[in-house]
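S1.2 Input.
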Amino acid sequence: MTSRSKAEVLRKLAVLNAAAVRADSGRDTSTRAWLEAWLANLAPARRSANTLASYRWAFEKWVAPTLGDVPLRSLGPADLERVWRLMAAEGLSANSIKAAKSAVSAALSDAQRRGLVDRQAAQLSQVPHYAPRASSQRRGSARAIQSLTQDEVDRLVATASEIGHPYEAMVLMGATRGLRPGELTGLVWEDIDFETSTVYVHRARIEEGAAARRGRTKTKASERPLKMPEEVMEALARRRARWEQERERAGKQWEGLDLVFCTQTGGFVKRRNLERRFEVLGKRAHVEGLTPYLLRHRTASLLAEEGIPREGLAELLGHTST
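S1.3 Output.
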């Protein structure tokens, strides 16, 4: 470790130790103060930029406005359950609520190790039963199960092909090989080997506020080569031809990032825009509550039904562990 790295580690520890001293002496460190200090100084050493962004979203949008002034040492499971219920009432999915709980749990685990809290309130809290998004409730089209049937996948692919939707290949890759949305929108043509029918996943789209870039995948285990079925490679070939047309039309406005799935000017497709495009595709294909992540869930469900061992499933989906 270089002297500069050591100095940085010592600086971060000093910030955290200062928080500990304040907690032990005045017992008035607020939940907001700890979450901010933890996110700025301790969390980055062990987590990807995408994970940190999701933690920041949970802290700043949901936890801090409701519980920020609560003394950290007094924070209890019932306090956090108020936040989970609020998120459910606002129409957030169970996965979003669980992600927020995971973020708080990570921060509180470090607080507990440092003696700032006596118990892990997040782990003791319970999230509500699944509550569909408010927008789905208004349409009367809430999806009770988090997977897609083969018939739905077939309809999505056929509809995408019929209307010239740019994500025909994305639907197939997500549904058959379980790539994450960020992995799909971070692919470049160099990652695709048409001769061996292999896609190399080693980068993902990372959003930082209004900006986006290509960075490391969620975990080291997420970096993996994936053999693709023939139908996927054929769809990718069609995507390549369409991509060339888009580049020619864009002319000097083309961003030149070489992204497989991109905007009309070759730029990154943001998460929210991707969700909107899938909503449109789902409506056209009569598939209720379609989200990009449902494709990944489809892969997991299908392979589990076929009896694939948990170790093999984790390797294919890029999980750190089973």
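S1.4 Remarks. Residues 3-131 form a domain with the DNA polymerase; domain 1 fold (CATH 1.10.150.130).
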